[in-house]
Structures are given as C-alpha cells and as structure tokens.
Amino acid sequence: MQRISKISGALSGSYLQLCRRSLSRLAQTQPALVDDDAVLPKMPPFDYSPPPYTGPSAAEILKKRQEYLSPSLFHFYSNPLNLVDGKMQYLFDENGRRYLDAFGGIATVCCGHCHPDVVEAIVSQTQRLQHSTVLYLNHAIAEFAEALASKMPGDLKVVFFTNSGTEANELAMMIARLYTGFHDIISLRNAYHGNAAATMSATAQCNYKFNVVQTGVHHALNPDQYRGVFGSDGLKYAKDVQDLIDYGTCGNVAGFLAEAIQGVGGILELAPGYLAAVYGTIKKAGGLCIADEVQSGFARTGSHFWGFEAHGVVPDIVTMAKGIGNGVPIGAVVTTPEIAKVLTYRTYFNTFGGNPVSTASGLAVLRVIEKEKLQENAHVVGSYLKDRLTSLKEKHEIIGDVRGRGLMLGVELVTDRQLKTPAKVETLHVMDKMKEMGVLIGKGGFYGNVFRITPPLCFTKEDADFLVDVMDYTMSRM
Description:
Number of helices: 15
Organism: Vitis vinifera (Grape)
Family: Belongs to the class-III pyridoxal-phosphate-dependent aminotransferase family.
Keywords: Photorespiration, Pyridoxal phosphate
Enzyme class: transferase
Cofactor: pyridoxal 5'-phosphate
Strand order of the largest sheet: 4-12-11-10-7-5-6
CATH topology of the largest domain: Aspartate Aminotransferase, domain 2
C-alpha cells in the first residue's frame, strides 16, 4: 500500500483518508483486487496556484445567505462550495483546493475563468469609462455589434443589447408580436426561456412557472429523441405545430421560439428535420422564427457557431446571453433591418444594454474564440468526451442516455432502462461524490436526473478523461 501516498491531491483530505482506510482494509482481505495507481483518478496538472484566501468561511457565508438573501436561492451539494478563485477550466475553494469545472457557470464561461485577454479588456475599459448611456456615442458598443453581426447568417445584422437571456427573449417575443400584428407564440414543452412575464409563458416546465397570468403561448409536443413518442422522427413531431395553429389560434401566429438544444430541459437536441419543417409551417402562418441561443451559442456545439446552424435553418431573430460575455452580464437580440424598425414606433430604451464594459468584454470573447480556435476545440474534445461517456453507458446500467453536441453534453440516469425511470436520488449522490473527487458538473431535465456537462471551451482531452474516470469510479461504487 505504499503507492497510496503517491495519489494526487485532487481529493479533499478527509475523503482521501477515508479512501486510504478502505483500500487498506481491502488490500488486507483481498490484495489481488487492489491496484492503487488505477483506483483513484488523477487530476491533470495545472500551473497555477491561487493567492491565499482570507475572507469569510463557507459556513459564515451560508449563514448570511440564509439571513439576508432570498429564500428562493438554493445550492448544489450537501456541503456547499465556497469558490473564491478561478483560472481557465479550473475553480478553487477557500482552502485552495482545485476543481475541474465541467459546468461553466451554467454554460456561461466559454473562454475560461479569468481569461487574461477578457480580463484586460474589462479592466482597460473600466479604467477609462465604466458607464455612460447609449444616448452618447462610444466605440465599444459599435465595434462589438459589428463583430457580432459578422458571425450571423443572412440579413441578421441589427443588434439590440440587453442584460440577460431572459430580457433578450422578452424583447424578441415583443418584436415578433409588433412586427406580425399577431399575438400567439408557439414554444416547446420542456423548454426554458426565462422567468419574466412573457418568457415564463414560453417556459414549459411547472418547476419554473408561478401561478400568475400567462397568456398567448401554446406549447408544442417536444421532439425528444429519448423519451418522445416518435423517437427521432422530427417530421412527425412537427405536425403538432400545425395542429396548434389550426385548433388553438386564429390561424396566424406571431412566432415560434425554441432552443436547438434544450439546456435546462436536460441537453435535449431537437429531432432531425424538426426545425426546418416547423419554420416552414410558422412562415405560412405569418409568424417569425426565433432561435434561443442563450446556452448553445458562441461555438459551444463545436460543429457550428450557433446551434440552429446544425439544422440548416436561418431564423428571423436570434437571442443570446451567457457565453457572450464569459460571465459578464450581457445579452443580445439580433434581427434584420426590416424587423428592427418596429421598435422605432415608440421609444425603446435600455439603461445598461450596451454598457461599455460589457460590450468590451463581449468583443474580447469573440476574439479569443477565434484566436484560440475554441470552436474547433469544442468539436474535437466534445466528440472525444461524448465517445468516452457512451462507452461508460455500456458499462453502467444506470446511464440511460448520452446526448448533445460539442461541449454541451447530457448524461441521463435511470433506474430502469426499459421504463426509463428517473434516477433522481442517484443523480444527487453521484454529483456529491464527483465533487469530493474534484469534478463539478450540473444537473437538469424535468426530473432532475440529467448531468449537464457544459465546461469552458478550453477543456482538454485530459480533462475529459479525468471527468469520465471520476464518474466511472463513483458509479462503480454505488
């Protein structure tokens, strides 16, 4: 058992001691079963050590949260983490312990935590001008809008900046209603588009909907390739949209709002052929097609810069947030010059939309994605990680499905593959154990039984190996 002392410090002291005691007992009773170097996965080396943390402890922060912050706030893990430092794909807690971040702040950190180019852009702009208003000219908002428009297909080149994805989707829905003159909008069951007035209507999970007036949105059958009634037949799901128009509206609609890959919904990629068919149906009904790229945009899917591009469609409006600023609060709506004119009929104004610091950050993010070829990396590493996770599915019966694209992947856990019974308790258990071993992942899906793997796009194959090995180790000991 001398080799145990060589095991990486990727585990917390208490958990490592527990593992050592367990291995020691196992080695005494069944020495042939113990290969110390193979048992505990080793985190890849990383040349960075955070400065000492001198702030309040996790317990003190939790106490203040409970006393002064909204009781609606919740946290992951039975023992919540106090994260105080970050560098690229890694995070550090109050004790300086390193974690592999495979969640990316909910698909938000795309370039990497505290990427030097992004930090430099933020600091430089903050030192010169932190805020003015769009009533004055400033180069930051204009340059970022131009760069963002260059990444869009077709005539999508007019940008409205917002503060979040919810706000972007709210604005997009209003624009669609104003432009078409119709009110009804169709979204998908299991979707999440935000938690304000209109977006809560478009969201279709009871967990995120309060008992307030929600009108004008119809929820179509979700083209779910894993649990859906038509499997991967996108055209059959698409017929439901026409039925909704025929039997639930005046025959015309304002628009259709959907993610190419449902994020909160459990990393569900829409069935092939679905979007193209539905876009055609919506156009015939006089509506606009809105692509929600809040989570799947900015090269995350690897194969394309935007999620909708994988479906061969061009929307009328695109919404985005999260990865656009690498953690800075910013969102955007991009549409055509013709559609954009509707906001000139009255006064539309946003105090913080297009803030100089936020837009400087966004421009830096675009430049980093291109300079460091992060879209290519998301494709290569994401494909490798998906293959490894798929292989893990063959080993562990609890894995019902592995899905997604690039570095937007989902692993659904079930207690029965035939019945697809959600493994809710087991999901929490595995998450907790993976955290103890140094890997942070998210969870989602209607039943809360899907691992959401959305790391920074600088994720490496070595990181992917560590993640899969830790998941394998944890599942093997359930």
